[in-house]
Amino acid sequence: MSAEARAAVELDQSSVGRVSRIDAIQQQAMALVTERNRERDLQRIKAALVRIDEGEFGYCVDCGESIAEKRLKFNPSVPQCVDCAP
To answer: In which element (H, E) is residue 81 found?
Structure first.
């Protein structure tokens, strides 16, 4: 995320208007959520690669049962079977 997106939203309400300030705050919040989601996805992918290296890919990290092929095709980084998933 750019420093501009992380910077506190400090706009002059008299020149920009309250609606523009609200828009800027919402854009900043959406940028933060997007960055968090990307980081979470990257961590899941890295964990899946470790499971591949260890020969544990395709097995639930909680119960050890096989994860359905259809589930893995939809999201290869998923660590849990349907029964154990939150």
So the answer is: none
| Cβ burial, residue 14 (10 Å; 0-12/13-18/19+) | exposed
Q: Rounded CA gap, 67 and 30, in Å?
A: 32
Tokens of 20: 């523009």
- Hey, what are 37's tokens? 């989601």
Residue 47, helix vs strand vs coil: helix
pLDDT tens for the chain, 86 residues: list them. 666 656 555 555 555 577 788 888 999 999 999 999 999 999 999 999 999 999 999 999 999 999 999 999 999 999 999 999 98
pTM of the model: 0.67
Q: How far apart are CA 64 and CA 6, in angstroms?
A: 41
